[in-house]
Every structure is written in C-alpha cells, then in structure tokens.
Design brief:
- The protein is an alpha/beta fold.
- The chain has a single domain, classed as Nicotinate-nucleotide-dimethylbenzimidazole phosphoribosyltransferase (CobT), large domain (Rossmann fold), CATH 3.40.50.
- Helices cover about 50% and strands about 10% of the residues.
- It has a 6-stranded parallel sheet with strand order 3-2-1-4-5-6, with helices on both faces.
Length: about 350
C-alpha cells in the first residue's frame, strides 16, 4: 500500500546543539529563562536545524486542496465549487494566506490533490490530483489504498521541494469544503473521543448543522467500526486527499531535518495521524495556535502540544501558522544578536 520512503529513518534533534544553545541563553544579558518560550523556541530550533544559530527566514508554505464526498450529507454551509474557486484565488494572490505569505516573504505553493473539478494550469499551483474528490464515507471508504499512497506521496514531494529550495521551516495548510467533517471523523477514530466533542461549526454551521455533522460522523464510525484499526485504515476510510497529503509532508519533512510549524484543527489532525504512523516525527512539530474549533484542544492534548498563540482563528489555509512565524524569527534574532555578559562587560548573576 505504501512506498518505501515512508519507512525511511527519521533523525533525532541534535542534543549537543541544544545544549550549546541553552548554555548561550544562560550567558545572554538577561536573567536565565526570562524570555520564556522564546528561549525554548531558539534552543529547540537549534537542535532541529543542527545549527549554532537557528533561523526561520526561508519559510515554505504549502496549501493542499481537495474535496470531500461527505458534503452530500449537508455538513457544510458552502457549495463544493468553493474549493476550486479558492484555488484560483490563491493563485491570484487574493486569499488570506497569500497576503500573509507576501508580508512574511515566504514562498507559497498550492497543491491540488483532488478538487472536485480540475482548475487547469495556474501560476503557483502544482497539480497532483489523486481524484475528483473523495467518496462519501457514510457508506464506503473515502479512498482506496492506492489513493492514500498517492496522496501521501504528493505531500512528501512538497516537503522534498521545500528542502531542495533551502527551506528552514515548513508550514502546511489545507483547503477543502467538508474537510472539517473528515478531520473530526479521523480525530474520533484516532483518539476514541465522541463526535460531539470533536465536531464543530467548521466554516460556519449553525447549531442544527453541527448536530447534523455529529450524527453523520457517529453513523459513519458505526458503519466502519471494524475497519478503523490502524492509522492508514482510518485515513483511507474517513480522511481526505489533503489531510493525507499533509501527513505525508510532515513525515517527509522530519526525514529531511526540516522543522514543521503546524496550523489549526484540520492540520493538527493530519499531524496526529502522521505521529501515529511514525512517532519519531513528534519532536519535529511545533504548534502555532489553538483555533476556535472546539475539537482542536482535544487533538493538541493527544499530541501533548502547547500552541504559541490563541487568537480565536478558524480560517485554515495555514493562516494561524503564518501569524506565528514572527515569534520564531524574533526568538532566533534574540538568540543570535543579544550580547553575552562577557561581551557587554556586565557582571553576571
């Protein structure tokens, strides 16, 4: 079902680089630990990048787009056509993540892994279409094993391109009408929590819509209960092309020593699936924010993750992760440019 790359070794962060970075932090002109998590970010990135002075200047943002057959159950307030329309909007530079990427000087790539309709060639859009949307998982698996393999590979290729382009930080985002339903279903299967806890309004469902989403997930979990034993089975049965691609990207990024900054609820579900597939990737994942989607906290707890921000965001597109990039950059600049007590001629504590 899977490719050989998925089993490739995943390096550990450099403990010696982290020790050196921590020693430097303790020599900088401040009380030890006084910069809080900014210090830990710099120390952690030094170990991940295996560098004396870590950096987050060259950022690659990849938004994976795909559609979901389960939208036929009325789980989204938007029509499925919005996915391909948003792909075009990304290409034109009009989406929130497009604006944020420009402001950060980050490279933005969009990967179409399976919108319901093919947008055709577009600037900044890579076509890796696995299909024209997934199947309706209420009564059949969303994907075949081969489609899962192809989606994982599409994500891995995006991570490889980021590494080849000299990326210092990888951010994955998603776009797909109905994908919060798919993500909630996958999260339920991975965490064994109830749909009522993990399913939220997504793109803006009213309470009746959320109740309908919960009922759809409950029925689907019951229908497929004997085929949800492994992470790959869960992804194949309930996932989406873009969710699977994100999981593949995170595993491939860790294999190539490329740190990952994880976005909101849907991306975190993909990260949880990736960690269940390859637990060794967990140190390579940093978490940007806790979104307003109610299930996100449950997923973060399952990952033992402490997000950097809590801004009430729920847009997706990697927007929350992009907003957190300046924190990483400032942590690195402080680590590199602050004077030590000896350099400043100040008596240490």
């Amino acid at each position: 079902m899977t490719s050989a790359w998925l089993a490739a070794p995943i390096p550990e962060p450099s403990s010696s680089r982290m020790a050196t970075a921590r020693a430097r932090q303790d020599r900088l002109t401040k009380p030890p630990g006084s910069l809080g998590r900014l210090e830990e970010l710099a120390i952690g990135l030094a170990g991940l990048q295996d560098r004396e002075f870590p950096a987050a200047d060259r950022v690659r943002i990849v938004v994976f787009a795909g559609d979901h057959g389960v939208v036929r159950a009325g789980v989204s307030p938007y029509p499925q056509s919005v996915t391909v329309e948003m792909i075009r909007n990304f290409s034109r530079g009009g989406a929130a993540i497009s604006v944020l990427a420009r402001a950060l000087g980050a490279e933005l790539e969009v990967v179409d892994v399976g919108a319901a309709s093919d947008p055709g060639p577009l600037p900044g859009v890579v076509s890796r279409r696995v299909g024209a949307g997934t199947r309706d998982f209420r009564d059949q698996p969303a994907m075949t094993p081969e489609e899962v393999r192809l989606a994982l590979r599409a994500g891995a290729e995006a991570a490889w391109r980021a590494v080849e382009g000299g990326g210092e930080l990888f951010i994955g985002g998603e776009m797909g009408i109905g994908n919060s339903t798919s993500a909630a279903a996958v999260a339920c299967a991975l965490t064994h929590k109830a749909p009522a806890i993990l399913a939220g309004p997504g793109a803006g469902l009213d309470p009746a819509g959320v109740a309908r989403k919960v009922a759809v997930i409950e029925a689907s979990l019951e229908h497929h209960q004997f085929f949800l034993k492994t992470p790959l089975e869960i992804l194949s049965t309930l996932g989406g092309f873009e969710i699977v691609a994100l999981a593949g990207a995170f595993i491939a990024a860790a294999q190539r020593r490329l740190p990952v900054l994880v976005d909101g609820f849907i991306v975190s579900v993909a990260a949880l699936a990736a960690v269940r597939l390859r637990p060794e990737i967990r140190p390579w994942l940093l978490f940007a924010h806790e979104s307003a989607e109610p299930g996100h906290r449950v997923v973060l707890e399952a990952l033992q993750a402490a997000p950097l921000l809590q801004l009430g965001m729920r847009l997706g597109e990697a927007s929350g992760a992009a907003v957190a990039v300046p924190l990483l950059r400032l942590a690195c600049v402080l680590h590199r440019q602050m004077a030590t007590f000896a350099e400043a001629g100040i008596s240490g504590g």
